[in-house]
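Quick one before lunch.
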Amino acid sequence: MTADTPKVVSPASLDQANSFGVSAQAAAALQVSRRDHFYHLHELPEYRSGPVMMLGGGSNILFAGDYPGLVIFNRLAGRQVLDATDKHAYVRLQAGENWHESVLWTLQQGLAGLENLSLIPGAVGAAPIQNVGAYGVELADVLDQVEVWDRQRQDWRMLNNKACAFGYRDSIFKRDPERYFVVNITVKLRVKPKLNLRYHGLRDELNAMGLSNPTPLDVSRAVCTIRRRKLPDPARIGNAGSFFKNPVVSPEQAARIGADYPQMPCFGQADGAIKLSAAWLIEQCGWKGYRDGDAGVSERHALVLVNHGCASGASLWDLAQRIRSSIHERFDIRLQPEPVVILPAAKTDTP
Ligand code: EPU
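Model of the EPU complex:
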């Protein structure tokens, strides 16, 4: 080991490292704050022998149990406009940067494209993993490339948008969680904005603000207003945003359910499949605002599980299972969790 080998803390508390605010421990933890730290990881026995996980803001994870391996906190910092023409600019954001602050920073540079993704909690490095999306835009729409540390090859690698195999809240990083650490992302942004106002609620909000000709900054403000109204703030009440993905079903299945529930929201997809609202399904089963001890379902949004104070990760996971069973019984749909769930004994349930 050398002076450049990152320092390991063992064991390490994860209580402050997850937005659910549940109590959990990792067998060991370290911080990566410089690129060359990656080269030295293999010198550590904790890295070589056990499970390893990289964590950014901890806002899309549920620790239903302790983590028996090494947690690497990504603290790589920096934001940079790489290249600009009169139409586009390429912006590189290091994985340890806060996502929302980075969105605001790009807007301050006069660059558009990330405004609909304002106020999403977490770090830049987590954004490509679940292909964050909101209000009609997802990261894949603007992402140019992702630089990763390839654990198999022990080297850096640039993955272009196609290689990331993005899907709805999905990517190669989610499907092959052991292989890559996200180091930075490069997004292609617009100098001349082209706003995406397809989401009805966003247009309504802008109208309510009296803005008929909004700027990207106005859109960002409107998104922040909607999110603050609809979603509980993880700084006040522990949560990880949407806990389930919206299920995508066949038109036949949607029609079967729709026959009994004509008011059910349905969103047609490009491939003919139908996306249903998990929040609506959960609300129909009576879970919205439900509380069992400190584990509950937000009364603002049925898709968000909340920790009212001292809920354990296990009790939140138990509640999630009960919600899943009731949706399955009533609608014959199996909801998939959106966050990464760390189960006791290190079984990771990545949807
Ligand atoms: N709805 C209910 N009950 C509720 C909330 C919503 O029935 O308590 C119904 C309404 O019919 C509404 C529909 O669900 O029209 C959709 O609700 P919303 O617009 O809030 O969006 P969502 O599909 O529930 C998704 C993302 C959110 C993102 C919003 C806005 C997923 C899993 N979630 O939620 O992302 O902010 O759209 O674009 O795709 C996140 O991933 O953590 C997240 C918050």
